[in-house]
Amino acid sequence: MGIISWIIFGVVAGAIAKFIMPGRMENGFVMTSLLGIVGACVGGFIGTSLGFGKVTGFNLPSFFIAVLGAMIVLIIYGKLKSK
Protein backbone atom coordinates (compact mmCIF):
# COMPACT_ATOMS: atom_id res chain seq x y z
CA MET A 1 0.00 0.00 0.00
CA GLY A 2 1.14 3.48 -0.70
CA ILE A 3 1.86 6.07 1.96
CA ILE A 4 -1.11 8.18 0.82
CA SER A 5 -3.53 5.34 1.51
CA TRP A 6 -2.08 4.84 5.00
CA ILE A 7 -2.40 8.56 5.71
CA ILE A 8 -6.05 8.44 4.66
CA PHE A 9 -6.52 5.35 6.86
CA GLY A 10 -5.08 7.26 9.84
CA VAL A 11 -7.20 10.35 9.16
CA VAL A 12 -10.39 8.27 9.08
CA ALA A 13 -9.35 6.39 12.24
CA GLY A 14 -8.66 9.71 13.99
CA ALA A 15 -12.02 11.15 12.99
CA ILE A 16 -13.88 8.09 14.25
CA ALA A 17 -11.86 8.04 17.48
CA LYS A 18 -12.69 11.71 18.08
CA PHE A 19 -16.37 10.97 17.44
CA ILE A 20 -16.32 8.09 19.95
CA MET A 21 -14.43 10.01 22.65
CA PRO A 22 -16.62 11.53 25.37
CA GLY A 23 -16.50 15.25 26.04
CA ARG A 24 -15.62 18.13 23.78
CA MET A 25 -12.18 18.44 22.28
CA GLU A 26 -11.13 21.72 20.71
CA ASN A 27 -8.91 20.15 18.06
CA GLY A 28 -9.17 21.25 14.48
CA PHE A 29 -9.22 18.99 11.47
CA VAL A 30 -5.45 19.14 10.94
CA MET A 31 -4.61 18.27 14.57
CA THR A 32 -7.21 15.49 14.62
CA SER A 33 -5.77 14.11 11.38
CA LEU A 34 -2.19 14.18 12.69
CA LEU A 35 -3.22 12.56 15.97
CA GLY A 36 -5.16 9.93 14.03
CA ILE A 37 -2.15 9.08 11.89
CA VAL A 38 0.10 8.85 14.94
CA GLY A 39 -2.57 6.86 16.78
CA ALA A 40 -2.93 4.39 13.94
CA CYS A 41 0.83 3.80 14.03
CA VAL A 42 0.81 3.46 17.82
CA GLY A 43 -2.16 1.10 17.70
CA GLY A 44 -0.51 -1.04 15.04
CA PHE A 45 2.73 -1.21 17.00
CA ILE A 46 1.04 -2.06 20.31
CA GLY A 47 -1.38 -4.52 18.73
CA THR A 48 1.38 -6.35 16.91
CA SER A 49 3.68 -6.35 19.96
CA LEU A 50 1.01 -7.79 22.23
CA GLY A 51 -0.11 -10.36 19.67
CA PHE A 52 -3.61 -8.96 19.08
CA GLY A 53 -3.13 -9.04 15.36
CA LYS A 54 -1.13 -7.57 12.56
CA VAL A 55 -2.00 -4.53 10.52
CA THR A 56 -2.10 -6.19 7.13
CA GLY A 57 -4.04 -3.70 5.07
CA PHE A 58 -7.49 -2.23 4.88
CA ASN A 59 -9.54 -4.73 6.83
CA LEU A 60 -11.77 -4.59 9.90
CA PRO A 61 -9.26 -5.85 12.51
CA SER A 62 -6.60 -3.40 11.31
CA PHE A 63 -9.13 -0.57 11.36
CA PHE A 64 -10.21 -1.49 14.91
CA ILE A 65 -6.59 -1.46 16.08
CA ALA A 66 -6.01 1.91 14.37
CA VAL A 67 -9.07 3.47 16.02
CA LEU A 68 -8.03 2.17 19.46
CA GLY A 69 -4.55 3.58 18.96
CA ALA A 70 -6.00 6.93 17.89
CA MET A 71 -8.20 6.97 21.00
CA ILE A 72 -5.16 6.35 23.21
CA VAL A 73 -3.26 9.20 21.54
CA LEU A 74 -6.28 11.52 21.86
CA ILE A 75 -6.57 10.73 25.57
CA ILE A 76 -2.88 11.42 26.14
CA TYR A 77 -3.03 14.61 24.08
CA GLY A 78 -6.10 15.79 26.00
CA LYS A 79 -4.39 15.19 29.35
CA LEU A 80 -1.23 17.00 28.28
CA LYS A 81 -3.15 19.91 26.79
CA SER A 82 -5.28 20.44 29.91
CA LYS A 83 -2.21 20.93 32.13
Mind explaining what this structure looks like?
The protein is built from 3 helices and no strands. The mean pLDDT is 80. It has helices spanning 3-20, 29-49, 60-82. Helices cover 75% and strands 0% of the residues. It has one domain.
What structural category characterises the helix and strand content? mainly alpha
If you compute it from the alpha carbons, what radius of gyration comes out, rounded to the nearest whole angstrom? 12 Å
What low-confidence regions span 5 or more consecutive residues with pLDDT below 50? none
Shape: globular
SSE arrangement, N to C: HHH
Total of domains: 1
N-to-C CA distance: 38 Å
Strand content: under 5%
Assembly of the depicted chains: single chain
* Count of DSSP strands: 0
Summarize the structure.
With about 80 residues, the chain is mostly helical.
Please outline the helices and strands.
Blueprint: H1 3-20, H2 29-49, H3 60-82
Helix pairs in contact: 1-2, 1-3, 2-3
List keywords for this structure.
83 residues; transmembrane; Transgly_assoc; GlsB/YeaQ/YmgE family stress response membrane protein; membrane
